[in-house]
Amino acid sequence: MSFWLIKEIVMSIFEIIMLICFGLAWPVSILKSWTSKTNNGKSLFFLIIVLVGYISGILHKIYFLCDGVIVLYIINFTMVFIDILLYIRNMSYDKNSLT
Fold it and tell me: What are the chain's domains?
């Protein structure tokens, strides 16, 4: 095995660990958004920044280093997108609670 191949494998392991750790947080956030029906403590700006980050990771995998890790990026992207949709839904609940 060449040094570069070993380096790529090790880097992918760390990338996988990072994406799994981030990915574990999104179901909790989605559940909170779903059950609380409020956006208190949420930031649409933050969610969009994270979504752009996952899009960048997916594009990097498509154009430069396509491997199985792209699946984790897609799963995380989907969860953040769901959280954004719930944020939009909860805007109407928040608006109605003010009146």
Answer: 3-98 (1.20.1280.290)
